[in-house]
Design brief:
alpha/beta, 7 strands, 199 residues
Length: 199
């Protein structure tokens, strides 16, 4: 399936994300980075252009592995000094083991039931799994034009996803993992919710 233009170009991706998050753009990364101690190993699932690594985790000397379907993003990550693997999360391959396995703004790609993806993340994590997921989305706007734009330009190569999480549906999903949830909090000016689970 074709990938939208923003997922083929890291600069356009960054511009769109900054537009969506406004002044809270950096806050979403800081919230995740603050949960990862210096020197830890990290597997970042659906890492995109690996902004979390290049701007927030590299200075903490983490052992970082970014996984993404986009080979261009992976090539840029490798150039920046991280380890990158072209990875299709729709396969059943076991994820690389790491202290912290994380995913930002990508769980919706696996709806209607992303449990298998989260289970694989939990199996790979030695310490914690961190998921930060949008709960306010352009793609689910009541305005049909805005919704169409949001859906069209957020195709990462797995097809258009019309459905996204709300806070209540995300909470309902993570309720299945209640015994493993360490904490949850709304971040990025209310646009995302972050869940931290014990491995």
């Amino acid at each position: 399936m074709s990938t939208s233009l923003i997922y083929r170009n890291s600069t356009l991706y960054e511009v769109l994300m900054r537009g969506l998050y406004g002044r809270y753009y950096a806050a979403r990364y800081r919230a995740v980075a603050a949960s990862i101690p210096a020197g830890a190993s990290v597997a970042d699932v659906c890492c995109g252009p690996a902004t979390l690594y290049t701007r927030y985790l590299r200075e903490k000397s983490v052992d970082y592995t970014g996984l993404d379907l986009n080979d261009g993003f992976i090539a840029e990550l490798t150039k920046a000094g991280g380890r990158g693997l072209v990875w299709n999360m729709n396969s059943d391959a076991a994820l690389p083991a790491a202290d912290y396995v994380l995913m930002q703004a990508s769980l919706y790609h696996f709806l209607p039931d992303p449990a298998a993806v989260l289970d694989r993340m939990l199996a790979a994590a030695r310490t914690q799994v961190i998921v930060a997921e949008p709960i306010r989305n352009l793609a689910t706007s009541d305005n049909r034009l805005l919704a169409a734009v949001g859906q069209r330009f957020t195709n990462a190569g797995t097809g258009t996803q019309a459905h996204r999480f709300t806070e209540s549906t995300l909470d309902a999903f993570f309720a299945r993992y209640a015994d493993r949830v360490v904490r949850s909090e709304v971040i990025a000016g209310g646009r995302e919710k972050m869940y931290v689970l014990s491995a």
